[in-house]
Amino acid sequence: MQVYLPIAEVSVNAFLLLGLGGLVGILSGMFGVGGGFLMTPLLFFIGIPPAVAVATEANQIVASSFSGVLAHLRRKTVDLRMGTVLLIGGLIGAALGVMVFNYLKSLGQVDLLVKLCYVVFLGIIGGLMFIESLNALRKSKSGAVPKRKKHTWIHKLPLKMRFRTSGLYISVIPPLLVGVAVGVLAAIMGVGGGFIMVPAMIYLLGMPTKVVIGTSLFQIIFVTAFTTLLHATTNYTVDVMLAVLLLVGGVIGAQIGAVLGAKLKAEQLRILLAIMVLAVCGKLALDLLLQPSELFSIGSGGH
């Protein structure tokens, strides 16, 4: 069943979009990531222009993350205080990111920037997560108890605050900076930023894995909603038809993902996520390196 997407100006199979939304929703519930880092490149692959994919995907992440958060709130695995600190940073970052996006769009360079950002970030993060997850799996098999690093430079920073749900007493500066970085990425790449925030919360802030997923999703909801609003009012690149189809699939998928995530070990979840990140990174890098089938295309930027 083909549907015409007015803003993207292409026709796409509705069931394909529902399926993609469902797949990303499952990932959202399982890993605490908005899923945009996979969905946005998948939209590129089926012919959606990058500027439209980025703005519309931010919209879909709001719904799948909200659905995932509800499941985590029932289990009391959301640190609302930490989520709020991350959120303040995220809103600042999102506003900065949309300004950069608009400037590049006026130069006609936004499509290339978005794809390059994906290749770089997915490659680095996927590689680091894969190595770390393998080490964690090895340790769990050998029965070694993983040591928690108690005091790092982060614990020496000022403006400390107690985060009871996470069992932490740390400075608010690192969570704020993580939030800003994620906000910028949400605006430029159409991602919730969970694929950066989840590792940062575990390794940088030292939060327990079971609390990280729900807290990450809580912050993602608001930052991506704000990003969508900015894109819709400044760029007019949000395709409502595309968003609705992805939303329906995403909300259903997130509930399934939350149930599946509870059944797997943290190390297994992280290694699965790392493999998926690297696979998408490889496909995008190939697309950038290989000669396109049509050498000339009419760009939407800069008009």
Automatic annotation (TrEMBL):
Pfam families in the record: TauE (PF01925)
Similarity comment: Belongs to the 4-toluene sulfonate uptake permease (TSUP) (TC 2.A.102) family.
Subcellular location(s) of the protein: Cell membrane; Membrane
Keyword Glycosyltransferase: no
Topology in the lipid bilayer: Multi-pass membrane protein
Keywords: Cell membrane, Membrane, Transmembrane, Transmembrane helix
This protein's record includes keyword Transmembrane: yes
Record field: transmembrane: 12-39, 85-104, 110-131, 168-191, 211-230, 242-262, 268-290
Listed name of the protein: Probable membrane transporter protein
PANTHER family from the UniProt entry: MEMBRANE TRANSPORTER PROTEIN MJ0441-RELATED, MEMBRANE TRANSPORTER PROTEIN YTNM-RELATED
Top-level taxon in the UniProt lineage: Bacteria
Major place of residence: membrane
